[in-house]
Amino acid sequence: MQEGALLAHFLFVLDLCGTFVFALSGALAGVKHRLDLFGVLGVAFAAATAGGIVRDLLIGATPPPAIADWRYLVTCLAAGLITFFWHGLVDRMHNSVLIFDAAGLALFAVAGALKATTAGLHPVSACLLGMLTGIGGGIARDLLVGEVPVVLRADLYAVAALAGAAITVLGLGLALPSAIAACAVAALCFGLRLLAIRRGWRLPTAPGT
Questions:
Q1: Spans of all domains in the chain
Q2: Global pTM?
Q3: Mean pLDDT (whole number) for 87-114
Q4: Can you state the angle between helices 37-59 and 93-118, rounded to 10 degrees?
Q5: CA dist 142 to 90, 106, 154, Å?
C-alpha cells in the first residue's frame, strides 16, 4: 500500500512538472504571436493539459485531474504570468519554446506511460498512450497559434516521445525502481529531442517535396 502511495505521489509530481514546462512553452508561443494576456494564459493552459486530459479520458480517470485539481490550473497560470511579464525571454523566443517543449514532451511521455501501465493497459497500449500524452499539448498549442503542429514537421518529435514511453514500460516490466527509471528515461528522451533539433535529424518526407 505504501509503495502504491509513493508511486501515485511521484506520478503527480512528474505530471505537475510536465504541466509547468508545457505551460511555459504555450505561453512563449502566445507571446511570440503577440496574443493578449487572456490569449497567452489560454494557450498555456491548453498546451499544458491537452495531452493529460486525453490520456485520462481514455483510461477512464474522470474527471481529469487537470480540470478537477486546482493545482494544475494554478501551475498553468503561474507559468503563463511569469512568461507574460518576463520580457527578457522575447529575444530568445524560438530556442526557449523548443527547449521547454522538449522538456514537456519527455516528462509527459514518461508520466503517460507510467499512468497507463498502473491503470492495467497492455504494454503496447501504454506506449502509445504515453506518446499521445507527450505530443497532445504541442498539437493544441500549435493549432491555437495557427501553425502546423510540430509533431507533423519536426525532427523526431513523436519518435522521441514513443521511445521514452517504450523504455519506461520496459523498465517497469523489468521491475526497475520506478522513480529512478522514470527520471533517467525522461532525461534520455529530452536529450534525444535536443540532439534531433541540433543535428537536424528527421524522418524522410515524400520525394520531390
A1: 2-199
A2: 0.82
A3: 75
A4: 20
A5: 18, 18, 12
